[in-house]
Protein backbone atom coordinates (compact mmCIF):
# COMPACT_ATOMS: atom_id res chain seq x y z
CA UNK A 1 0.00 0.00 0.00
CA UNK A 2 1.31 3.45 -0.92
CA UNK A 3 1.79 5.73 2.09
CA UNK A 4 1.76 9.50 1.51
CA UNK A 5 1.44 10.53 5.15
CA UNK A 6 3.25 13.80 5.71
CA UNK A 7 3.02 14.75 2.04
CA UNK A 8 1.33 17.97 0.90
CA UNK A 9 -0.54 17.87 -2.40
CA UNK A 10 -2.20 20.73 -4.25
CA UNK A 11 -4.80 20.00 -6.93
CA UNK A 12 -5.77 22.53 -9.61
CA UNK A 13 -8.86 21.97 -11.74
CA UNK A 14 -11.17 20.02 -9.46
CA UNK A 15 -14.63 20.84 -10.82
CA UNK A 16 -17.00 18.21 -9.41
CA UNK A 17 -17.20 14.58 -8.33
CA UNK A 18 -17.22 13.37 -11.92
CA UNK A 19 -13.93 15.08 -12.75
CA UNK A 20 -10.64 13.27 -13.15
CA UNK A 21 -9.10 15.64 -10.61
CA UNK A 22 -11.60 14.37 -8.02
CA UNK A 23 -10.55 10.78 -8.61
CA UNK A 24 -6.93 11.80 -8.15
CA UNK A 25 -7.64 13.87 -5.04
CA UNK A 26 -9.50 10.96 -3.47
CA UNK A 27 -6.65 8.51 -4.04
CA UNK A 28 -4.02 10.92 -2.73
CA UNK A 29 -6.13 11.61 0.35
CA UNK A 30 -6.78 7.91 0.99
CA UNK A 31 -3.01 7.37 0.94
CA UNK A 32 -2.60 9.94 3.69
CA UNK A 33 -1.62 13.11 1.81
CA UNK A 34 -2.86 16.47 3.02
CA UNK A 35 -4.83 18.14 0.22
CA UNK A 36 -5.10 21.74 -0.92
CA UNK A 37 -7.84 22.30 -3.49
CA UNK A 38 -7.58 25.32 -5.80
CA UNK A 39 -10.64 26.74 -7.55
CA UNK A 40 -10.73 29.36 -10.27
CA UNK A 41 -13.13 32.02 -9.05
CA UNK A 42 -15.54 33.04 -6.32
CA UNK A 43 -18.34 31.51 -8.39
CA UNK A 44 -16.81 28.06 -7.82
CA UNK A 45 -15.95 28.52 -4.16
CA UNK A 46 -19.00 26.78 -2.72
CA UNK A 47 -18.52 23.71 -4.92
CA UNK A 48 -14.84 23.49 -4.03
CA UNK A 49 -15.56 23.73 -0.32
CA UNK A 50 -18.18 20.99 -0.59
CA UNK A 51 -15.65 18.71 -2.29
CA UNK A 52 -12.92 19.52 0.23
CA UNK A 53 -15.30 18.68 3.07
CA UNK A 54 -15.18 15.04 1.93
CA UNK A 55 -11.38 14.91 2.17
CA UNK A 56 -9.80 14.82 5.65
CA UNK A 57 -7.95 18.06 6.51
CA UNK A 58 -8.37 19.46 2.98
CA UNK A 59 -8.41 23.24 2.51
CA UNK A 60 -9.48 25.40 -0.40
CA UNK A 61 -7.68 28.28 -2.11
CA UNK A 62 -8.72 30.57 -4.96
CA UNK A 63 -6.47 30.87 -8.01
CA UNK A 64 -7.11 31.80 -11.62
CA UNK A 65 -4.13 30.31 -13.47
CA UNK A 66 -4.49 32.94 -16.20
CA UNK A 67 -3.52 35.64 -13.69
CA UNK A 68 0.11 35.74 -12.53
CA UNK A 69 -0.78 37.68 -9.40
CA UNK A 70 -3.25 34.95 -8.40
CA UNK A 71 -0.56 32.29 -8.81
CA UNK A 72 1.94 34.29 -6.74
CA UNK A 73 -0.69 34.87 -4.07
CA UNK A 74 -1.86 31.27 -3.77
CA UNK A 75 1.67 29.91 -3.45
CA UNK A 76 2.38 32.43 -0.71
CA UNK A 77 -0.73 31.11 1.03
CA UNK A 78 0.40 27.52 0.52
CA UNK A 79 3.84 28.35 1.92
CA UNK A 80 2.27 29.97 4.95
CA UNK A 81 -0.17 27.12 5.52
CA UNK A 82 2.11 24.13 4.90
CA UNK A 83 5.71 25.31 4.61
CA UNK A 84 6.43 22.90 1.76
CA UNK A 85 4.86 21.11 -1.18
CA UNK A 86 5.37 17.55 -2.41
CA UNK A 87 2.78 16.96 -5.12
CA UNK A 88 1.13 19.24 -7.68
CA UNK A 89 -1.71 18.09 -9.92
CA UNK A 90 -2.54 20.22 -12.97
CA UNK A 91 -5.93 19.12 -14.31
CA UNK A 92 -6.68 22.20 -16.39
CA UNK A 93 -7.59 22.62 -20.01
CA UNK A 94 -9.71 25.08 -21.93
CA UNK A 95 -10.16 26.07 -25.56
CA UNK A 96 -12.71 28.69 -26.58
CA UNK A 97 -14.82 27.84 -29.62
CA UNK A 98 -13.51 24.28 -29.65
CA UNK A 99 -16.16 23.42 -32.25
CA UNK A 100 -14.27 25.45 -34.86
CA UNK A 101 -11.90 23.34 -36.92
CA UNK A 102 -8.19 24.15 -36.64
CA UNK A 103 -8.15 25.90 -40.00
CA UNK A 104 -10.64 28.47 -38.70
CA UNK A 105 -9.18 28.96 -35.23
CA UNK A 106 -8.63 32.63 -34.54
CA UNK A 107 -5.35 34.00 -33.23
CA UNK A 108 -6.98 34.91 -29.92
CA UNK A 109 -8.61 31.50 -29.46
CA UNK A 110 -5.24 29.86 -30.16
CA UNK A 111 -3.58 32.09 -27.57
CA UNK A 112 -6.16 31.37 -24.87
CA UNK A 113 -6.13 27.61 -25.48
CA UNK A 114 -2.35 27.45 -25.11
CA UNK A 115 -2.21 29.88 -22.21
CA UNK A 116 -4.73 27.98 -20.08
CA UNK A 117 -3.96 24.44 -21.22
CA UNK A 118 -0.15 24.51 -21.51
CA UNK A 119 1.50 27.68 -20.22
CA UNK A 120 -0.31 27.39 -16.89
CA UNK A 121 1.69 24.23 -16.17
CA UNK A 122 4.91 26.21 -16.61
CA UNK A 123 3.65 28.99 -14.36
CA UNK A 124 2.52 26.59 -11.62
CA UNK A 125 5.73 24.54 -11.79
CA UNK A 126 7.83 27.69 -11.48
CA UNK A 127 5.87 28.79 -8.41
CA UNK A 128 5.93 25.32 -6.86
CA UNK A 129 9.66 24.66 -7.30
CA UNK A 130 10.83 26.71 -4.27
CA UNK A 131 8.38 24.83 -2.03
CA UNK A 132 9.45 21.39 -3.23
CA UNK A 133 12.51 21.46 -1.01
CA UNK A 134 12.65 17.67 -0.73
CA UNK A 135 11.87 17.01 -4.38
CA UNK A 136 8.39 16.27 -5.61
CA UNK A 137 5.98 15.18 -8.30
CA UNK A 138 4.16 17.36 -10.81
CA UNK A 139 1.37 15.73 -12.80
CA UNK A 140 -0.79 16.96 -15.64
CA UNK A 141 -3.63 15.45 -17.68
CA UNK A 142 -3.50 15.06 -21.44
CA UNK A 143 -5.38 13.14 -24.13
CA UNK A 144 -4.57 11.03 -27.21
CA UNK A 145 -5.93 13.85 -29.36
CA UNK A 146 -2.50 15.42 -28.94
CA UNK A 147 -1.06 12.77 -31.27
CA UNK A 148 -3.96 11.58 -33.42
CA UNK A 149 -6.81 13.55 -34.96
CA UNK A 150 -10.13 13.12 -33.18
CA UNK A 151 -13.33 14.63 -34.55
CA UNK A 152 -14.30 17.88 -32.83
CA UNK A 153 -11.23 17.98 -30.56
CA UNK A 154 -9.70 20.59 -32.85
CA UNK A 155 -7.45 23.23 -31.26
CA UNK A 156 -7.45 21.42 -27.93
CA UNK A 157 -5.46 18.64 -29.60
CA UNK A 158 -2.83 21.19 -30.64
CA UNK A 159 -2.74 22.62 -27.11
CA UNK A 160 -2.37 19.14 -25.59
CA UNK A 161 0.57 18.48 -27.92
CA UNK A 162 2.18 21.64 -26.55
CA UNK A 163 1.39 20.47 -23.02
CA UNK A 164 3.15 17.15 -23.58
CA UNK A 165 6.24 18.89 -24.96
CA UNK A 166 6.13 21.17 -21.92
CA UNK A 167 6.19 18.11 -19.65
CA UNK A 168 9.41 16.90 -21.26
CA UNK A 169 11.18 20.24 -21.05
CA UNK A 170 10.08 20.89 -17.47
CA UNK A 171 11.26 17.39 -16.53
CA UNK A 172 14.69 18.32 -17.88
CA UNK A 173 14.66 21.70 -16.10
CA UNK A 174 13.60 20.35 -12.72
CA UNK A 175 15.29 16.96 -12.62
CA UNK A 176 18.33 18.28 -10.76
CA UNK A 177 15.97 19.43 -7.98
CA UNK A 178 14.56 15.87 -7.70
CA UNK A 179 11.25 17.12 -9.04
CA UNK A 180 9.58 14.76 -11.50
CA UNK A 181 7.13 15.95 -14.16
CA UNK A 182 4.77 13.51 -15.87
CA UNK A 183 1.50 13.39 -17.77
CA UNK A 184 -1.36 10.93 -17.69
CA UNK A 185 -3.20 10.42 -20.96
CA UNK A 186 -6.60 9.24 -19.80
CA UNK A 187 -9.12 7.64 -22.09
CA UNK A 188 -12.41 9.45 -22.75
CA UNK A 189 -14.47 9.98 -19.59
CA UNK A 190 -17.83 11.72 -19.24
CA UNK A 191 -16.59 14.80 -17.43
CA UNK A 192 -17.87 18.38 -17.51
CA UNK A 193 -15.09 19.28 -19.97
CA UNK A 194 -16.05 16.43 -22.30
CA UNK A 195 -19.49 17.96 -22.81
CA UNK A 196 -17.93 20.55 -25.08
CA UNK A 197 -16.72 17.91 -27.56
CA UNK A 198 -19.26 17.18 -30.28
CA UNK A 199 -20.27 13.54 -30.84
CA UNK A 200 -18.33 12.51 -27.75
CA UNK A 201 -20.35 9.32 -27.51
CA UNK A 202 -18.77 8.13 -30.77
CA UNK A 203 -15.35 8.27 -29.14
CA UNK A 204 -16.59 6.30 -26.13
CA UNK A 205 -18.10 3.69 -28.42
CA UNK A 206 -14.91 3.39 -30.47
CA UNK A 207 -12.87 2.63 -27.34
CA UNK A 208 -15.34 -0.06 -26.27
CA UNK A 209 -15.29 -1.59 -29.72
CA UNK A 210 -11.57 -1.49 -30.55
CA UNK A 211 -9.69 -1.08 -27.28
CA UNK A 212 -8.08 -4.31 -26.00
CA UNK A 213 -10.12 -4.25 -22.79
CA UNK A 214 -13.34 -3.43 -24.67
CA UNK A 215 -14.50 -0.87 -22.13
CA UNK A 216 -13.86 2.72 -21.14
CA UNK A 217 -11.55 3.69 -18.33
CA UNK A 218 -12.91 4.74 -14.94
CA UNK A 219 -11.91 7.83 -13.00
CA UNK A 220 -10.63 5.71 -10.11
CA UNK A 221 -8.19 3.97 -12.46
CA UNK A 222 -6.71 7.30 -13.47
CA UNK A 223 -6.53 8.20 -9.78
CA UNK A 224 -4.60 5.01 -9.05
CA UNK A 225 -2.05 5.84 -11.73
CA UNK A 226 -1.67 9.36 -10.37
CA UNK A 227 -1.11 7.92 -6.91
CA UNK A 228 1.66 5.67 -8.23
CA UNK A 229 3.34 8.49 -10.18
CA UNK A 230 3.17 10.73 -7.10
CA UNK A 231 4.83 8.15 -4.89
CA UNK A 232 8.41 6.99 -4.40
CA UNK A 233 7.53 3.85 -6.38
CA UNK A 234 7.83 6.05 -9.48
CA UNK A 235 11.07 7.72 -8.38
CA UNK A 236 12.77 6.87 -11.69
CA UNK A 237 9.97 8.09 -13.96
CA UNK A 238 9.92 11.62 -15.35
CA UNK A 239 9.06 13.36 -18.60
CA UNK A 240 6.68 10.57 -19.58
CA UNK A 241 3.14 10.34 -20.90
CA UNK A 242 1.43 7.34 -19.30
CA UNK A 243 -1.66 6.06 -21.08
CA UNK A 244 -4.61 4.95 -18.95
CA UNK A 245 -7.08 4.24 -21.73
CA UNK A 246 -7.79 0.50 -21.64
CA UNK A 247 -5.15 0.09 -24.33
CA UNK A 248 -6.93 2.03 -27.07
CA UNK A 249 -3.77 3.92 -28.06
CA UNK A 250 -2.01 0.74 -29.19
CA UNK A 251 -4.65 -0.18 -31.77
CA UNK A 252 -4.69 0.50 -35.50
CA UNK A 253 -7.96 -0.80 -36.84
Automatic annotation (TrEMBL):
Pfam families: adh_short_C2. PANTHER family: ENOYL-[ACYL-CARRIER-PROTEIN] REDUCTASE, ENOYL-[ACYL-CARRIER-PROTEIN] REDUCTASE [NADH], CHLOROPLASTIC. It catalyses: a 2,3-saturated acyl-[ACP] + NAD(+) = a (2E)-enoyl-[ACP] + NADH + H(+). It comes from Edaphobacter paludis. The lineage of its organism: Bacteria, Pseudomonadati, Acidobacteriota, Terriglobia, Terriglobales. GO terms for molecular function: enoyl-[acyl-carrier-protein] reductase (NADH) activity. Belongs to the short-chain dehydrogenases/reductases (SDR) family. FabI subfamily. It is an enzyme of class 1 (oxidoreductase). The active site is at residues 143, 153. Pathway: Lipid metabolism; fatty acid biosynthesis. Its EC number is 1.3.1.9. GO terms for biological process: fatty acid biosynthetic process. Keywords: Fatty acid biosynthesis, Fatty acid metabolism, Lipid biosynthesis, Lipid metabolism, NAD, Oxidoreductase. NAD(+) binds at residues 13, 19-20, 40, 64-65, 92, 160, 189-193. InterPro entries: Enoyl-ACP_Rdtase_NADH, NAD(P)-bd_dom_sf, SDR_fam. This is Enoyl-[acyl-carrier-protein] reductase [NADH].
